[in-house]
Amino acid sequence: MAAVLFIMGEPLICINNVYKIYNEGFENEVRALDGLNIRISQGEYVAIVGASGSGKTTLMNILGCLDQPTYGEYVLDGELVSALPDRKLARIRNRQIGFIFQGFNLLPSLNALENVELPLMYQGIRGARRRDMAEQALERVGLESRARHKPGEMSGGQQQRVAIARAIATNPPVIMADEPTGNLDSRTGLHVVEILDTLHADGATILLITHDSNVSAMARRQIRLSDGRVVESEEYSHGRSV
């Protein structure tokens, strides 16, 4: 029987008996997720960890409304999103979730400010208000002085900070970070982790995928996956287990 993780407070995210199955019914069937039950409350800082093939990226794709489960329910902020059409999933991604990826995913032809403005443009925010929101986001990550520089003119750490600014420009309630320090040296990676810690302190719900134990220890809770199942959930206080 799959373990159920209960956290105090009203759950923001509910994963109810979720399966993600590829090639179902065939000899090469793969159960990337195998009956997951997870609860995450508003304002939590959660690290999802596990070996390659454990299901953590598949889980993040479902949590981020980039994919849908084969079976089971995903409820986000009281809304059953696991069966929504693509158009509505796109709306949820744009308004409720900020994504940070290992590869930065910045457009090389745009400068930092223009890259940060993109999600605001998709929301229909126009003109001076959009520019002001993007500038505020860059200021929060300490890159206001690099606003007119393109990605090729910045270091990897600066590019990741632009990506974080883009993720937080719309003030989404959930930030999802997939190996955000994976392409960075340890010192620069620590700076990125400190920014995530500040965002959490400001009230954001942070979901972090990482293979780095030093990074995952910065979270307040760790969920460890193996073969598509939760095998451990450990709570932390200021980076230490409790």
Task: Name the features.
alpha/beta; 7 helices; 4-stranded antiparallel sheet; 242 residues
Compute the gyration radius: what is it? 18 Å
Tally of helical segments: 7
What global shape is seen? globular
Distance between the termini: 26 Å
Kindly report the spatial arrangement of strands forming the biggest sheet: 6-7-8-3-9-10-11
Number of strands: 11
Secondary structure class reads: alpha/beta
Order of helices and strands: EEEHEEHEHHHEHEHEEE
Report the β-strand fraction as a percent range.
25-35%
> Helix share of residues?
25-40%
Q: How would you sum up this structure, described in words?
A:
By secondary structure, the chain is an alpha/beta fold. It has seven helices and eleven strands. The protein has helices spanning 56-63, 86-96, 112-122, 127-140, 156-168, 186-201, 213-216; strands at 11-22, 30-41, 45-49, 71-76, 79-80, 97-101, 174-178, 205-209, 221-226, 229-237, 240-241. A seven-stranded mixed β-sheet has the order 6-7-8-3-9-10-11, with helices on both faces. The protein has a four-stranded antiparallel β-sheet with strand order 2-1-4-5, with helices on one face. Strand 9 (221-226) and strand 10 form a beta hairpin. Helix 3 (112-122) packs across helix 4 and helix 5 runs parallel beside helix 6. The longest helix has 16 residues, at 186-201. It starts with 10 loop residues before the first strand and ends with a strand.
